[in-house]
Amino acid sequence: MTDLPASKVDLKSVLSAPTRADHSEGMSYLQSVPRRMVTLYLPLTIIVVVLLFPFYWMALTSVKPDEQLLDLDRFNPFWTWNPTFKHFYKLLFESYYPHWLWNTMYVAICATVLSIIASVFAAYAIVRLRYKGANLVGGLIFLAYLVPPSILFIPLATVVYQYGLFDSPLALILTYPTILIPFSTWLLMGYFKTIPFELEECALIDGASRWQILIKIVVPLAIPGLISAFIFCFTLCWNEFIYALTFLQSTSNKTVPVAIVNEFVDGDIYRWGSLMAGALAGSLPLVILYAFFVEHYVSAMTGAVKE
Amino acid sequence: MADIAVAPRAKPQIQGAWDQLKHNRNWLGFWFMVPAMAFLIFFLAYPLGLGIWLSFTDTRIGRVGHFIGTENYEWLWDDSIFWLSVFNTLLYTFVASAVKFAVGLYLALLLNEHMPFKALLRAAVLIPFIVPTVLSALAFWWIFDSQFSIISWSLRHLGLISQNINFLGDTTWARICVIFANIWRGVPFVAITLLAGLQTVSPSLYEAATLDGATRWQNFRFITYPLLTPIIAVVMTFSVLFTFTDFQLIWAMTRGGPVNATHLMATLSYQRAIIAGQLGEGAAISSAMIPFLLAAIMVSWFGLQRRKWQQGESND
């Protein structure tokens, strides 16, 4: 099972207009415009509106003045004419929020870099060194991908405590790679397989060591794969919740998702504005990153499922 | 494929044992695997075993436990809250996965059509998957607020209801809400991965079938679906796996309430192990998830096998 056939999907075409577009146009004359309205545009609009509405609501809530938030009868709840940045101001200057953002960023970058380095070596060894048992190890790494954090957090909490890492960002930096390494190894294995063998053979004949081949030939050629893996891992770290909730205790050490759930949720009836501002500010970095690397992101997502 | 490791061995062996070792691929392979394996053994394999061991002890936070056999499991067997959480988890997984599959496949088929702003739409559809689950769960918490819910407001102004719906305070509504939020987050993943699969289907198959008089439904049933089955198997395995072990959505929206109606096994184990300090009991609950996970992995395995068989490729 380890050497699954590599899929022949042109991943880039998933988002950018596919090269086959003119072919599919060939049959679309069979559908009249009104029919397309009902069978295509209407359901698509409904689904997209439902998918995006929570973000609109999040953004709107974060700029609404407090009195408009809770008075639904005097003000139209779907719009506001006098937006305020009070909630963001409160967030940035009267809370630990910048601290939490920094923690999240720091943990995510460290864990991602560590995982990618470990994965490059592992994937290269499995695909190209093909040592004895490489297929078995590849299969085990795939299985590791299927072990969810929800069944590991209790024993990991005791391990983290034993190693004296409790309430330290290091606990997260060391445990997140268990989620990231299986994924990125599997993804990079797929990329490495597409690099022609002949390049490596030439280098070997010219006297290059395996280390030189990896650094000077394989890694530069696998840059798109590395970017995909990096972005996806970064997103996974940012999204991770249960480890951060279990291993961190002091307010200033928390990551954004945990801090918002634990620190902002109090009995205050006016909390919604700052809560949504916090959620929006915590999502924006990822959305911006995503906007720049849509194709890499999708190839990471589909690649990991298929390889 | 050529076996390139043969090349260095062909060199005259004059540089001694160290050089030979440097080119031995098993030896090199071992060192290349060390970083990844260290992480996976210390923080994944060891805790996995430790978790199963903890479930047979009476460990608490701050106190070393003793082996107590299957007492934790016997205790859970008679615990109605545990069984309620098992029921909730199965209901949650089953309903959410089924709807995610149906809507995801439908959305993938829609997005596969030729239309303007295609790339932009596809990018927009994925956003719920990018945003951290907890943060979008908070948005849902606000949308489903008992007093200021925008849904209640809209329905009231449309004249459909006379009173606000207590979305997260009523057991049935709370279940519907968390399942809805899970579906909302999972649909983009299913849709985009299935879309990638759909794009591998050659349009000429549809053209040929249409010429032979096939309807749209027949096109879907006898061309799209069979060609998509393998990827559906994989995507749904992942979807089931991550829905079954979901934690953060529930924790951000309901924390298992009202009256444990939305407690999943993962949230219950967190509550028992970390909040109540009964690490042994919590470990028993999370260990009880393992058989279900194994079942999901088996499905994945057979799904992949089937795909290999369909593509007619051998294991080179």
From TrEMBL, chain A:
GO cellular component: plasma membrane
Major subcellular location class: membrane
Localization per Swiss-Prot or TrEMBL: Cell membrane
Protein family: Belongs to the binding-protein-dependent transport system permease family.
Keywords on record: Cell membrane, Membrane, Transmembrane, Transmembrane helix, Transport
Membrane-crossing residue ranges in chain numbering: 38-59, 105-127, 139-164, 170-192, 213-238, 272-293
Domain of life the protein comes from: Bacteria
PROSITE patterns: ABC_TM1
Residue ranges of domain ABC transmembrane type-1 in the record: 101-293
InterPro entries according to UniProt: BP-dep_ABC_trans_perm, MetI-like, MetI-like_sf
Designated name of the protein: Carbohydrate ABC transporter permease
Membrane topology: Multi-pass membrane protein
Organism listed in the record: Bradyrhizobium niftali
Alphabetical GO biological process terms: transmembrane transport
